Task: inverse folding
């Protein structure tokens, strides 16, 4: 059996960019806008 040294973790793991996210909900009161929560 061959000896394999342990692998070192990568410092930077770049996979892909996510560009299809909606903007964050800022200054929105979800309690006031959702009738089921009231």
Result:
């Amino acid at each position: 059996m061959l000896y394999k040294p342990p692998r070192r973790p990568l410092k930077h793991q770049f996979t892909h960019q996510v560009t299809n996210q909606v903007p964050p909900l800022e200054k929105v009161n979800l309690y006031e806008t959702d009738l089921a929560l009231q």
Summary: The helical segments are 30-33. The chain has a mean pLDDT of 82. The radius of gyration is 23 Å.
